Amino acid sequence: xxxxKNNNLESAFNTVLVSxxxxxxxxxxxxxxxxxxxxxxxxxxxxxxxxxPIHDVPEGKTAQIEGxxxxxxxxSRPRRQLVCQVNDGSGTLHIRFLNFYGSLVKGLAVDKRVxxxxxxxxxxxGTEMVHPKYRIVRMGEPLANVLTPVYPTTAxxxxxxxxxxxxxxxxxxxxxxxxxxxxxxxxxKRYQLAGFKESVMLLHQPPPDASAGLLQARTHPAxxxxxxxxxxxxxxxxxLHYRLRRSHRAPALPAKSKLTTALLALLKFELTxxxxxxxxxxxxxxxxHHPMQRLLQGDxxxxxxxxxxxxxxxAIENGHQVAIMAPTEILAEQHYQKLSGWxxxxxxxxxxxxxxQKKKQRETALAEIATGKAMLAVGxxxxxxxxxxxEQLGLSIIDEQHRFGVHxxxxxxxxxxKSGFVPHQLMMSATPIPRTLSMSYYADLDIxxxxxxxxxxxxxxxxxIAERRRSExxxxxxDACCTGKQAYWVCPLIEESETLQLKTVEETFDTLxxxxxxxxxxxxxxxxxxxxxxxxxxSFKQGEIHLLVATTVIEVxxxxxxxxxxxxxxxxxxxxxxxxxxxGRIGRGSDASVCILMYQMPLSAIARTRLKIIFKYNDGFExxxxxxxxxxxxxxxxxxxxxxxxxxxxxxxxxxxLLDAAKNVAxxxxxxxxxxxxxxxxxxLGKKNEYLRV
Length: 694
Ligand code: ADP
Ligand code: MG
What we know:
about 700 residues; alpha/beta; CATH 2.40.50.140; Rossmann fold; 4 domains; 22 strands; about 40% helix; globular; binds adenosine-5'-diphosphate; binds magnesium ion
């Protein structure tokens, strides 16, 4: 781990001599050794290899010129500025400085020869450059013979210093090992990859004939190689991790189909093809004695719960217990009700475990889990705790897995068995992950996708309505509820203060109750006791409550098919996936559903974009793609980000082909050239390969 501890910088610079203060600055850039310097690749380049005649200087592009100062003057109007005229025989150009010291005025005196690098624009005085880079030169001073790299840097660490340090690392002969090729020839040839050393040399010191355009766009073959290497390191790390976990033994739980057939016969619906297909994948994994590590993805409402239930039955039929974990109490309880409704009739004991349970209940549940009487345990993260000892856990299922970090997921997985087996693991997520992201950041999992919704759903109609039309909306809700519909009223998220948020829901509940005396209105929020929450949810489910005023606690998983209306207040404050999840609470029955997104002006640019996206798209995958574009992978991935190697150079959206190649090569070299794989990983992730250590 890198990290700054006073006077105790563990650095590994072998080639360059750096002072303590420079070292500290390098640490801030996360540069702690020679190779980090090599990977501190330029952000962009400046072309100082060429001088343009002033007459031909291109407009709007950075260009270098050279000439004699023919006039220099400090103007005081319209504001204080230094203006000089430079002439090179082909024409005259003005340079202008708005902030300057006296020394600059002296330096840029008439008759001096200057080299200027800047962006030419048509200005008040004719062609001009504002705040250009400048240098007094002698006649015939040699030009740079490589493009000048501009590095990412930090305050106090100059470009010149970085260039010098990096140059030293690059040009030392002893550093051969640092640049040694990690990839076998066959791979280089097949994917037409440039050599590693060649590529870093070129990126740091590009010759004048290198295409500045390709370099800038990061599509130059040298960039391809770097991005490929980075993607490959990520694949290697994650696939290795996958293999490592897979090397444990799990109980083989082959399909027996007695209980599953019994459950299917009880259901009021037929599985969709997508449910059948994903179930077959899960079922196949369970039959193996390697632990399954599968992610079941499916949009909100696609019917993941029944797939989980059928998978659970397969384990139970083999005499193994199953744990299902959900991120919130409301959802855990709802799962408990649904699953016990499905499984108790076929003779399976289901128990529920939550943090807020009464002691007595909890002890009974724990005992039933320990003796193996309860074959299925449903709960919140309370299931992780040490007191929970399973008699024979064969499968753990984690719903809404994106809510949990890698560590929590592993904890449940490690909740082993007396037999020394590791349980199979099924994760579920309603935040669909775009393919490129799942291929990169989820490469340590197998993925099944439910890509269709159960039949008979009518897409939710989304309306964007300004806050000032609130009373109109209230009347609409009243009318709808009077005809037997049910609605959610979602109160705004107030990130700064939970107390304020609580106050807001309570006030909203009071006002709505006053304004709509003929409706039965319920209230639910995170601070209610578990029993109160479940009582409210129950009466909403049974149709006794018309309108449920709620915080975003109802965001995940809540399933009340008769509810067909939703009002979301201050929708502009919410993220896309949250809005999509909330909206997914309706549109579950056959009634046409309407979701009203209330917003308050003024809208920030990003809020406006989000609202447009959620208005335009219903499909969770498309929303996720847009969200990814808007926020980038780091934020999009949320909890998963911790511990997974992030990408600095490659970008999964635009480098899809390289990603495909890296994926194939990773499998190939892990099997056939394990030494290459090892060296590659060491080079790229050496100190950062925490993920492997989890
Ligand atoms: P999610 O994937 O969001 O967890 P759920 O499992 O909660 O979705 O399912 C949403 C609703 O669809 C539930 O009421 C469920 O019983 C119902 N459902 C699931 N599969 C089908 C199907 N094949 N046909 C009809 N309804 C289904
Ligand atoms: Mg669900």
